[in-house]
Design brief:
The chain contains 11 helices and 8 strands. It is of the alpha+beta class. It starts with a helix and ends in a 5-residue tail after the last helix.
Length: about 280
């Protein structure tokens, strides 16, 4: 079983090392997080006095191992008097801890985005502006996104829940949310290097992008084929941007984007194909 510290560090690697740009046809949500958000996602708000183990101190306590799996059990048994309440709180916390590892898949495969209207869920203490929902086998992961006060379309994660297909209320968090947005793609950006990569793209969005690439090449008078279009699509995904003809013609700029041997091989192979077609525009 993973320790509390390991879960914290693994979650930090996914949520804090990168920013995520969640694209819909209506808007782009920029998701960014710091480690002080993680204790709440782990369920530490249910321990001790209100918010004792969330925020800065919660992160510090976990990193210094002042709170561990063992102390989670002890605190629940101390602060919740009945055995039934203790059981339910521990189950809720462990559902979070056991399934936070699914966040990476949540961003890199099909998920649904709901506009969360709190007035439609008055019985819930859940407070978010959007709800990201991902089904993985029998598990349903729910990630709440709340708007930041520091910028337009900038969001933070503020809650995480897991339900299961055999739960009676497995869809209780989103069943009454009528406004649903299809995610067209999700771009991940490394905060340190600013390197971007498309980690999810819907089939419909991919087809639209292929059509756009074909139209761009035809307009530029460039002979096209399926292999060339697919290569440009791969470049767009790998670097998280839509490459124009001018960008493609800048060999040095393309190579400067590469951060590892695999990316350099991709760009080098593409440039050989591109130059082989005589595209010196």
């Amino acid at each position: 079983m993973r320790t509390l510290l390991q879960i914290f560090q693994d979650t930090k690697e996914v949520l804090c090392r990168y920013d995520y740009y969640i694209h819909t046809q209506k808007r782009i949500l920029h998701l960014t997080n710091s480690e002080i958000k993680i204790p709440h996602l782990m369920g530490m708000q249910y321990l001790g006095n209100p918010n004792q183990f969330t925020g800065d101190y919660g992160a510090y306590a976990i990193k210094k191992q002042r709170i561990t799996m063992e102390s989670v059990e002890k605190l629940v048994r101390k602060y919740y008097k009945t055995e039934e309440k203790q059981r339910r709180v521990l189950e809720m916390i462990h559902r979070k801890l056991d399934n936070l590892r699914g966040l990476g898949e949540m961003f890199s495969s099909y998920s649904r985005l709901y506009l969360y209207k709190n007035e439609q869920n008055r019985d819930s203490k859940f407070q978010s502006d959007y709800l990201l929902v991902h089904e993985n086998g029998k598990k349903i992961l729910h990630l709440g996104l709340v708007k930041s006060e520091s910028g337009k379309d900038l969001y933070h994660c503020n809650s995480f829940m897991t339900t299961y297909q055999n739960d009676r209320d497995r869809d209780s968090f989103f069943r009454s949310l009528p406004q649903h947005y299809e995610i067209t793609k999700i771009v991940r950006e490394n905060k340190d290097t600013k390197h971007k990569e498309t980690i999810y793209q819907s089939m419909e969005a991919e087809q639209r992008e292929k059509f756009g690439i074909e139209k761009m090449l035809v307009t530029a008078g460039i002979q096209i084929d399926k292999k060339l279009i697919n290569f440009i699509l791969r470049l767009n995904k790998k670097f998280g941007i839509y490459h124009t003809v001018d960008m493609i013609n800048d060999n040095e700029a393309l190579l400067r984007k590469c951060t590892d041997k695999r990316e350099k091989n991709l760009v080098t192979e593409f440039l050989a194909l591109w130059e082989g077609k005589g595209n010196g525009i």
